[in-house]
Amino acid sequence: MNKNTEALGPIKNLAYIITITGLILGGFIALFFASLSVFKAVELERAEGRAQLYHSTLVSALERLEHLPFIVAQDPAVVRALEQKDVAGLNQRLEDFANRSKAEAIYVMDANGWTIAASNYAKEINFLGKNYGFRPYFKDAMAGKRGEFFAIGATTFTPGFFIGDTVRDSTGKPIGVVALKIALSELTGAWAASGDDILVTNKDGIVVFATSDEWRYRATTELSESQRIQIQNMQQFGKQELQPIDWLLGQDNEVQLDGTNYLYANKQLERRGWTLWYINPASSLFERTWFVIILAAIVVAIMGIAFVTFRSNQLQRALKASHDDRLKLVAEIEERKATQRRLEQTRSELARTSKLAALGQLAASVTHELGQPISAMRNYLAAEEISSGHKPGGLVDQLRGLVQRMENITKELKFFSVRGDNTTEDIVIRDLVDGAIGLVKHDLVQQNIKIDIHLATTLPTIKGNKQRLEQVLVNLFRNAISAMRESDKKQLEITATADQEHLTIAVRDWGHGLAGQSIEQLQEPFHTNKPSGEGMGLGLAISAAIVREHQGLLSASDYEIGAQFIIQLPIGEE
Ligand code: ADP
């Protein structure tokens, strides 16, 4: 990834976050309007149902007794009372009718509007002797048609619905009116108890019934002067001032009433010019809509949290998997490196072993070839000495010294060329140590070196080539002897111990020490610290190779004074 695309990362993330937030917000707004319109549709349907119900109860209340005045008008007692001014018993008769039909009042007026008989004659406030000639239902009835009218009672001051019908004489001429008052208070009381909000307006837009007192007898439209005069003349609303009400019809069945928004459903009572309004506060719609939005927000939040948790789990799993893979890879790499190291070790060992084998052959042929000339030189020198007498420090002596040196070198070479056979046997450690000591005994005695041998009592035997292991010990002894040439303390300590798996032989001296050289350096072929002619730097190389042949390990360590070489051999293996 280059720098530019790297810098785009946070911008991309920001754009992503803005897009997601925008989508969620857009979703919420869409959901808001969708649920609002759904709730509105549901509410309107409900309102329609309620309005229809209230409409039918009102219509049935109004129409239940609408034929009663007509029937009473046919009553001969009523006709007689009007024709002959004989009202005897008529009041009681009307009272009986009213009680049976549950009408508020039934009463009879003469042609001038004076009440001559009334069902409420016995009550303190009654219609007897009152004139209702100004009422439209009276005028209509006197004109020969049935009259209907809503008004606040001029006598009782209670509202009611009035129905009037014509009383005719035998010639068919109108001679009076029978009127009926229906109270409707029971019905409107039941409406109010239902908890619903209902209004009924008349053709002038005046509220004639309402479940709230505040709305009753108020004008939803502005009344003209002539309308007001007419209403006054009919005394329709008594002393009510018919104040205007804040009533604003909006679109989509919405109405504002006294500053509150409502949804409405309305039904016409056509014959009377009335309208029934069922209204319901629009705030309930918003409450429900907000409830849906909050619910949706909770669902979105839960889904968001679930998604984030799921993603982080997924990431964690992926991270763990990649971590595991990495660990596996690291382990594999380590294993490969170790294999590589082993391979290299084996390769260098192979090279060293083959070098040593070649050296062994070379050493064998050199010692063989030099053997005869050296012994011939020795013979010639002896003959020369016999013939010309011994002159100490003379030429013969000097030549003899050189011959001796050459013999030393060949001896050394001979030691390395000894391969012996490859036979293995059970070796008793004491025999092995004693054998090797025997071979260097001469040098030990000559240099006055004390030998200190500690062999554990129950040492196991080991399987191997005795001659070659002896060669290793001899080499270690010789190196120790040569290291102690100048030492004050001349002691060679040989210790052998064993555990379950290994036998350990340690050779310790008090010589000049290794001066920090590692066993790897020391066992390099031709690595020697001895002066020319004394060492060839092959002893430890060969010794280590022999120990390895026996699956063992040769190691070395420095002491404050002297050094120690340790041979470790596995028990029970060849
Ligand atoms: P060489 O004896 O022919 O030098 P080696 O391989 O036997 O060859 O030894 C290598 C070198 O290790 C020696 O030259 C000597 O410096 C050092 N060395 C070996 N054994 C000892 C010892 N016991 N104390 C001090 N130095 C030692």
Describe the overall structure.
By secondary structure, the protein is an alpha+beta fold. Among the domains are: 116 residues, PAS domain (Beta-Lactamase, 2-Layer Sandwich), CATH 3.30.450; 150 residues, 2-Layer Sandwich (Heat Shock Protein 90). Helix content is 51%, strand content 19%. It has 13 helices and 18 strands. A six-stranded antiparallel sheet has the order 7-6-11-10-9-8. The protein has a five-stranded antiparallel sheet with strand order 2-1-5-4-3, sandwiched between helices. Strand 15 and strand 16 form a beta hairpin. Helix 1 runs antiparallel to helix 8 and helix 10 packs parallel to helix 11. The longest helix has 106 residues. The protein is rod-shaped, with a radius of gyration of 69 Å. The relative contact order is 0.06. The model has no long low-confidence stretch (mean pLDDT 89). The structure holds adenosine-5'-diphosphate. Adenosine-5'-diphosphate binds next to helix 11 and helix 13.
Short structural summary:
This protein has 574 residues and is of the alpha+beta class. It has helices at 3-63, 68-73, 76-84, 90-101, 136-142, 185-194, 225-234, 283-388, 395-417, 429-446, 466-483, 519-522, 539-549; strands at residues 105-110, 115-118, 147-152, 159-168, 174-182, 197-201, 207-210, 247-249, 254-257, 260-269, 274-281, 425-427, 450-455, 462-464, 491-498, 502-509, 553-558, 563-570.
CATH topology of the domain at 421-570: Heat Shock Protein 90
Which distinct ligands sit in these coordinates? adenosine-5'-diphosphate
Shape: rod-shaped
Beta-strand residue percentage: 15-25%
